[in-house]
Design a protein that fits this description.
The chain has helices at about 40-45, 120-125, 125-140, 155-165, 180-185, 215-225, 240-245, 250-260, 260-270, 285-295, 310-320; strands at about 1-5, 15-20, 30-40, 60, 65-75, 85-90, 100-105, 110, 145-150, 170-175, 190-195, 205-210, 225-235, 275, 305-310, 325-330. The strands form three sheets. Strands 3, 5, 6, 7, 8, 15 and 16 form a seven-stranded mixed sheet that branches. Strand 12 (about 205-210), helix 6 and strand 13 (about 225-235) form a beta-alpha-beta unit. The protein is an alpha/beta fold. It has two domains: about 1-125 and about 300-330, Medium-chain alcohol dehydrogenases, catalytic domain (Quinone Oxidoreductase, Chain A, domain 1, Alpha-Beta Complex), CATH 3.90.180.10; about 125-275, 3-Layer(aba) Sandwich (Rossmann fold), CATH 3.40.50.
């Protein structure tokens, strides 16, 4: 089968399409024929080695964090799926593997696709859906509270905005001026054009910030929070709260993450606010709940662009620019 792989860390984002064996499954796994896969910013971090603190990959590594497809084989111990089911999933970030014609994953992290979505639309969902579900849980977000999502009109924002609104939050996002209409369609309450506006001069008294931009924006985002407000980053770096929440970390890594987070924790404490970090985990149960939300809301993700499998490098390059409005999709099977 075809698989998009890297053989080492690289700054050039060059991915090879190789021929590898179709994986065999264990009694707790299902084998999925991939129809479409989502392309996300984590791939850039993985290729360039910037997530080595979290994940030590075995090379060659098949890339890809989310997919939609059809179950073609079911392990003997799997009761919730059958051959022919349309499903979607996020493999563990330390394994990846979605950019392949066939993927073997544990059934516990798989969910049936929303009935109102195509394979391409479903492939745009898992990573962002799990991220916003887990982020709001960490923030202990409450109805009526104010949330700011930096850079909220990309692959994450197109899922996060409508879901956060469904949970009763007031949602503000930033983006380039050309993304204003998209933000409005997604239901954002307020939009900040970062090309012409400084959100630190406009926004005040926010309860929560979800950061998608990284360390350079943390000091600015802290300013817009009210006393006691919470900042949760998807990218800036781990800290003590993250380490203490991660039961499977070694003692050495917990100490390291505590030390790495000191600048962020110190800055937040100085302003009487808090900093936290998330590294999203797979969950079939949470995806199944999101399926119900999407079907009930009749909501569909926004697709920025689609690329054929042999243009995987172009798809990843598009993500690396940070200018996508919606999700970038890799078409693995043209016979959808």
């Amino acid at each position: 089968m075809k698989a998009a792989q890297i053989s080492k860390y690289s700054k050039t984002l060059e991915v090879e399409i190789n021929s590898i064996d179709i994986p065999s499954i264990t009694s707790t796994q299902v084998l999925i024929k991939t129809k479409a896969a989502g392309v996300d910013p984590h791939l850039v971090l993985a290729i360039t080695g910037k997530v080595k603190l979290f994940d030590h990959y075995d090379f060659p590594l098949t890339l890809g964090n989310e997919l939609a497809g059809v179950v073609i084989e079911v392990g003997a111990g799997v009761m919730d799926f059958k051959v022919g089911d349309h499903v979607y999933t996020m493999p563990p970030l330390d394994k990846m593997g979605a950019f392949a014609e066939y993927v073997a994953v544990d059934a516990a992290i798989v969910a049936k696709m929303p009935a109102n979505l195509s394979f391409k639309e479903a492939a745009a969902v898992p990573l962002s859906a799990l991220t916003i579900i887990q982020a709001l849980a960490i923030l202990d977000a409450r109805q009526g509270a104010k949330l700011f999502i930096s850079g909220g009109t990309g692959g994450f924002g197109q899922i996060a905005i409508p879901y956060a609104k469904s949970q009763g939050l007031f949602v503000t996002v930033s983006g380039s001026g050309s993304a204003r209409d998209l933000a409005n369609r997604l239901g954002a309450d307020e939009f900040i054009d970062y090309e012409t506006q400084d959100y630190t001069h406009i926004l005040r008294g926010y309860d929560y910030v979800i950061d998608t931009r990284g360390a350079s924006e943390i000091s600015k985002q802290i300013k817009i929070l009210k006393p006691g407000g919470k900042l949760l980053s998807l990218i800036a770096g781990p800290n003590a709260r993250f380490a203490n929440r991660s039961a499977d970390l070694s003692t050495g890594k917990k100490i390291l993450f505590n030390l790495l987070g000191l600048p962020f924790d110190g800055l937040a404490k100085w302003h009487k606010k808090s900093y936290d970090f998330i590294y999203v985990q797979p969950s079939g149960k949470q995806l199944a709940a999101f399926t119900q939300y999407l079907e009930k809301a009749k909501s569909k993700p926004v697709i920025d662009s689609e690329y054929p499998f042999d243009q995987v490098n172009a798809a990843i390059t598009k993500i690396a620019t940070g200018h996508s409005q919606g999700k970038v999709i890799l078409k693995v099977d043209d016979e959808e």
